[in-house]
Description:
Structural class: alpha/beta
CATH class of the largest domain: Alpha Beta
Mean pLDDT: 92
Distance between the termini: 54 Å
Strand order of the largest sheet: 3-2-6-7-1-8
CATH architecture of the largest domain: 3-Layer(aba) Sandwich
Radius of gyration: 27 Å
Helix content: 40-55%
Strand content: 5-15%
Oligomer: single chain
CATH superfamily of the largest domain: P-loop containing nucleotide triphosphate hydrolases
Number of domains: 4
Largest sheet: 6 strands, parallel
Shape: globular
Amino acid sequence: MTGAVFQPKGITPTAEQRAIQLERHRHVVVEANAGAAKTTTLALRLAQALERGANLTHIQTLTYTDAAVASLRLALDRIGIPAAVRNKLRIQTFDQFCAERLASVEGPGVTRYNAPEQLKPHVLQAIDRVLSNEDERHRDEFAIEGSGEGAVEGLLASFARLKGTMQLTLEAADRPLTPALADELGHDYLTLRTFWAYEHLRRGGHPDRHAFRAPDDATHDLAKLLLTEDALLEGEHPLALGLHLVLLDEMHDTNRAMFTVLQHLMAQNPAAFIGFGDRDQVIHATAGADASFMGSGFDREIGPARRLPLTSSYRFGRTLAHHVGRLAVKDYLSQSLHDTPVNMVRYEHLKEAHWHIAKVIAEREGLGPQSHLSEIAVLLRQPHQSVELENHLLDKGVDYRTAGFDPYLMRPEVLFVRGLIAHAREEFAAIEDVATRVRILQSLLLFCGSFVEADTDDHGQQQQAEQLAIKEVAAQPVLVPHFVQNQVLRNAPPHIRGLIYAALDVIRANATDVLMERFIQALAPQQLAARVMVRTDDIAQVSANIQGLIQSAATFDNVESFFRAMNAREVRQKSMRSKHCVVLSSIEAAKGLEFEHVIMPGLNKGEFAVGGNTADNRNLLYVGMTRAKHRLTILYDVGKPSKYLVDAGLI
């Protein structure tokens, strides 16, 4: 090892960056603010190790996402690390690293799934096993009816959190699964039962390896192996790699499964450690991410760490840095050559907010002359907030794409209502796209808890027959009324059939004021959603989306014209350009990205802080605000501004 100092190309490191680059303490945690060039600084630290003579094969860099892997390689290129060196460095996501290490124990043969669609049949099979188990003692806990198709997305999200936190392994390994235990762990009983059934399917009956894995499964499986199956680790330990340096990017996304692997990695190697993260970016969507793993948890379970700051933002200017610092209660400086103003817009009626957003987009506020509209992002706290906004943008001819949620017209509950209106009005053919008609029929079956009759008792064959029938009927709209009446409605449970008939009667009145006054009461969407979904949040979103859809009928004379407008808006939405257009995104989906102009509507009391003033909600606002480079626009109801706006010194 030498005392040489690496001199990067193209940049002059700040005092904070240089201190991090040269730090020699065995355990270092860098508390990095958003936009503070943490990837570049990590690259400097890695380059310094090489400058001191570190062996390439003795360095392991871990990240949370593929995008972070690519960003680090680009940063190494920018500061002058030759391609021949970069290509030999071990830079992997946690899951890639864990899958590689498991392969050294298990051998090849584990199928890799990357899309939720590939996992869906396995989740449905797990649900079917749970619901058809004759030995189940707590059947009254299962409120879900039908195939469970509407619960798949929510269950996969719950599974990810269970795996990330390793709750069942750490808190309930030797305890019988009961409703009381499920309540203690903060999950419903059906979710935990289905999780166990799903994990059994993943094992596939093989004694040495899993049948398949999805993203992040390898991390969970290796962590569980390290904790519970020491017999498989006889001989050479899969984490004994002779490492001298371990670097971790996006440390704020670390969950218990990842931290368990990190613990054992550090225990098996004589390595120094340096991790970079921003604990204010810990949000609930990250499968159990926990800020304590950057703080006391690290000190207690791995060893005392020296903490170094990285406070100066290069992404945005002083004004935004000041307000973000106040929100997060920490120092926040800016090295940016431009300022980033925060434009606060007050409104009394929601339509004023939508009008302002469309105006900002039309006038390209906050964009440079050569910038595309894709550099404007509207970040929403909840998907249902997009319903009226999407309608306004569609009617104004503004192209957009969504991230983190489907366009509202394609959400299952909205397709369900469109199907009811089409049936009541006998106008199914007015929906032009055959694929949309297929999805509408699927949604009708889903929320009605119904099924298509088939000459088979096999679950898989029944599903195939149902999908074939749906496609045939959707291709010939003249067949739809008979299908809805004789398959969807006739096979629905009697109490659900009563709700559907009541909703159809409201639609047939053909008056939007009657629709707005009586439809929600007649249909009881919360009740319908609770029959096919598991998570409380998903059930609430279904109700909110249907409520928002019905409220958007206010400007139409009758239901007929409202229905025609929805169909026309769908045609318009599908004709929009997929690139270089405005981005409508959840805050979670925007994490890790940046835009020239960020617009955040709905910063209202009781609307943004879902579930109360929690760390998750505050961090979500922090993440949203720090995506902006040149301008941030926040819109709020003058009568009920969020407390966070006061905390940030914005009002």
